[in-house]
Amino acid sequence: MPTRANLASARVSILDERNNVIETRTADAGGKVVYNVDCDRAYTIQASMTGYEQNSFPIAKTHGGEVNVMADLKPIEEIVKEVVVELNDIFFEFDKSNITKEAAFELDKLVEVMNNNKEMTIMVKAHTDNRGSDQYNMNLSNRRAKSTVQYVISKGIAKERISGQGYGESQPLVDCKDKCTEEEHAKNRRSEFVIVKK
Fold first, then answer.
1. From CA 82, how far away is CA 92, in angstroms rounded?
2. Which residues share a beta bridge with 16?
3. pLDDT 10s digit of each residue in the chain, 198 long?
4. Which of 31, 33, 102, 160 could bond 6 through an S-S bridge, CB–CB 3.0 to 4.6 Å?
5. Is residue 31 within 8 Å of 8, Cβ to Cβ?
6. How far apart are CA 92 and CA 146, in angstroms?
7. DSSP for the chain, written as a single string
8. CA-to-CA distance for 17 and 72, rounded, in angstroms?
């Protein structure tokens, strides 16, 4: 069971409303970082620490005063289950296979898991929504699997440790047939990470 502890030396960044990093600091011995910010502006805090899952914490606009943000980070090993690595969903834009900034944020967690588990081998299963022909979607999902694998390899993981395959629209997460909402389509455009070998 995880225990609550102050993470001294954690890296904490503050980002503006456009997600541009303003400054990055290192937490003190008590796990704290202090920033002075402008009133009536929204910010985001990003916290990271080796061995822990990186996370973001939004800060709403304020009219002054002190705002305390509890930036809880889960140990990275907690996202490793028996047969899968559980990441937040890796979604793709409609008709595209490029890795988005949000997807890269999640894939970096997979890279850390694999760096901590040198024997682990992963298979990426890429899926599409049901718009377009079966063959088109199979080709698109194969491109998505390939781009996901290439991203992980680009971060230093040996190519023998990760493979990918597209499944097109054959395994929808939401089986909504021809009545899918945009949200349901988005859920079906995903990648899954199956542990082939631990």
1. 26
2. none
3. 344 567 777 888 888 888 788 888 888 888 888 888 888 888 888 887 777 777 788 888 887 777 788 878 777 677 676 677 888 777 777 788 888 888 888 899 999 999 989 999 999 999 888 998 999 999 989 998 999 999 999 999 999 999 999 999 998 888 898 889 988 988 888 888 999 887
4. 31
5. yes
6. 13
7. -------TT-EEEEE-TT--EEEEEE--TTS-------TT--EEEEEE-TTB--EEEEE---SSS---------BGGGGB-SSBB--S-----TT--SPPHHHHHHHHHHHHHHHH-TT-EEEEEE---S-S-HHHHHHHHHHHHHHHHHHHHHTT--GGGEEEEE-TTSS-SS--TT---HHHHHHHS-EEEEEEE-
8. 22
Cβ atoms 86, 79 nearer than 8 A:
yes
Closest CA to 67 of 97, 46, 92, 37: 37
Tokens of 94: 């409609």
145's tokens: 């699997």
Read off the tokens for 56: 């973001």
Structure token digits, residue 155: 């971060």
Question: The tokens of 164 are what?
Answer: 């990918």
Q: Are 54 and 79 in contact (CB under 8 A)?
A: no
